[in-house]
Amino acid sequence: MTKSAEGFARVAREVFAPIYPVIAEQALAWSGIRDGIALDIGSGPGLLSVALAERSNLSVIALDADPAMSRIARTSAAGCAGRVIPVTGDVHCMPVRDDTVSIAVSRGSIYFWEDRARAFSEIERILRPGGVAYVGGSFGTPELREAIFTEMRRRNPNWDQDVARRSGRATPDTLRREVAESGVLHARIREEEEGMWVEIRKGAISPRAR
């Protein structure tokens, strides 16, 4: 297990943990989906995956490119009765069949994707007809965002600069352009005080079935 994976998991548990139940509830409420297969892209230690499983009847695939993170997620999901399945894989070429995922969620990893247009197309591919994805960088609520920023500034004096640098790589205008390049049929940007989401919806008829 890599030191970086262990460090990331520690910060997720010690600082970011309160946001995952909030984000899970938001995604479930927005989508109206609580059954089927969920996909947590860039799942890290699996805390959002567990929150989704605990608040729904979904079976959750916790997908992360780092095998060490998949091992940590397996520990995080120990109490979920096998409903969270850690899988090692990359968002640009996911080991998931076409038209199978009811809801996909990704919190934070969008800033590190090498080719977001390709990733958006891949996300549309794996969604079932009627499925929806929320990918972005929300902090849950403005209050949670402020609490996290306060603690992360204490731990990392360069926190604000790091956030600005990451956010600058994925502005709303940049994301709109990349969504257009991806060829995804139904997508929009949800801008909120606590963060931003790219929402991708798949029509009732798969584009590949036309």
UniProtKB/TrEMBL annotation:
GO terms for molecular function: sterol 24-C-methyltransferase activity. Residues 39-134 form the Methyltransferase type domain. The keyword Methyltransferase applies. SUPFAM superfamilies: S-adenosyl-L-methionine-dependent methyltransferases. Keywords: Methyltransferase, Transferase. One of its GO terms (biological process) is sterol biosynthetic process. CDD domains: AdoMet_MTases. Coiled coil: none annotated. This is Methyltransferase type 11. It comes from Methanoculleus sediminis.
